[in-house]
Design brief:
Length: 354
């Protein structure tokens, strides 16, 4: 029998899609994925959960009621305004499945907005950021009028550039769009700006994405959308049943209980971000960009080479050269990890320049 050609069998929009490959290069110092270097939950408090581990034969609570209650209490919102996802990635998929395209987002930004649009066969438009990595408001407003996007995704602070978009511009977009504006606040906990949560009651066309991933619990794959109860109700129709497994539900609740620990870790990371920014600024041939997130984007003269040399020192960064020319992204690690990164970068630059 002739072999099946699965590539040809796939829908056209899937054929032209590339899988999201998170390169897992084994390195001692992992500063590539914007994870927290700290886990906020002591091991013993996880393994003492007898009622969890004695009922693994049962499906989890499909509505994750306890977790929603905990988030609602923490953020002073109603449980009905929360939709939980297997990472915010899943919620991005649900949003596009629910409302369809066109989808509009700036570029460079988080790649899932584009990947999910394409995978679901929906058109999307990417509008380049300006030279300060802020929103090109003229082009965006023009496009809103022209293509009438169902969904606009704005990551603020933005990944991979690290800055918050000007809130004035975000307001203009919210006011102009007749449809939905999603503010992705994955990095909000690290930002000096307030975020858009307080505005939900005044604006029904915005919704906010948050996640446990960047604050110490990436492994549990739990993110959530906060929005008008009617919006949540629609998106909830496309959510797969039992999408948050029992272990994730329990650990996320534990995370909220340990909020003080999470906040103390965030404080350390912000302090380290400031120090690292100063160190990078002082290096000849390195141009870091100010960041409100748990990572710093910086330019060097030969990003590919620096990226590879750092791996030889056991330090893994994210190579963004194909997206932002000459740019690498470093996640803020522990003070010790950051020291090794800076030391290795110095040695790398010396060896290139000599
Ligand atoms: C990391 C990241 C996410 C993904 O979060 P998960 O909850 O882990 O899926 C969402 N948005 C942005 C901008 C991110 O950088």
């Amino acid at each position: 029998m002739k072999d099946l050609n699965f590539y040809n069998l796939a829908r056209n929009n899937i054929q032209s899609l590339h899988a999201y490959i998170a390169k897992e290069i084994p390195c001692k110092i992992k500063l590539d994925a914007n994870e927290s270097p700290y886990c906020p939950i002591p091991l013993k408090s996880i393994f003492s959960k007898e009622d969890l581990f004695s009922t693994l034969n049962r499906y989890p609570d499909p509505e994750a009621k306890e977790l929603k209650k905990a988030i609602a209490k923490d953020l002073r919102i109603t449980p009905e305004s929360i939709l939980l996802g297997n990472g915010s990635d899943e919620i991005i998929n649900c949003l596009i499945t629910t409302f369809g395209g066109p989808v509009l987002h700036p570029i460079p930004t988080f790649v899932m907005y584009a990947i999910a649009s394409q995978a679901l066969g929906q058109s999307h438009m990417a509008i380049p950021l300006d030279s300060a990595f802020d929103l090109d408001i003229e082009s965006i407003l023009k496009s809103i009028k022209k293509i009438k996007p169902k969904l606009i995704f704005l990551s603020s602070p933005n990944n991979p550039t690290g800055n918050c978009f000007s809130s004035e511009k975000i307001f203009k977009i919210i006011d102009t769009s007749k449809n939905i504006v999603i503010i992705d606040e994955a990095y909000q906990p690290f930002s000096s700006q307030k975020g858009f949560l307080p505005l939900l009651k005044d604006y029904h066309n915005i919704a906010i994405l948050r996640t446990f991933s960047k604050i110490g619990l990436a492994a549990i794959r739990t993110g959530f959308l906060i929005g008008h109860e009617d919006l949540i109700k629609e998106v909830n129709k496309t959510r797969l049943p039992y999408n948050i497994n029992a272990i994730s539900q329990a650990i996320a609740i534990e995370g909220i209980k340990n909020k003080k620990i999470i906040n103390s870790h965030i404080k350390v990371i912000i302090k380290e971000r400031k120090r690292l920014y100063g160190e990078l600024s002082n290096l000849k041939g390195v141009q870091p960009f100010p960041s409100e997130a748990n990572f710093i984007l910086f330019k060097v003269s030969d990003a590919e080479l620096v990226y590879k040399k750092l791996i030889e020192y056991g330090v893994l960064l994210r190579n963004l050269n194909t997206i932002v020319k000459d740019a690498l992204r470093v996640t803020i690690g522990t003070p010790e990890e950051n020291n090794i990164f800076i030391q290795s970068l110095k040695l790398t630059l010396d060896s290139i320049n000599s």
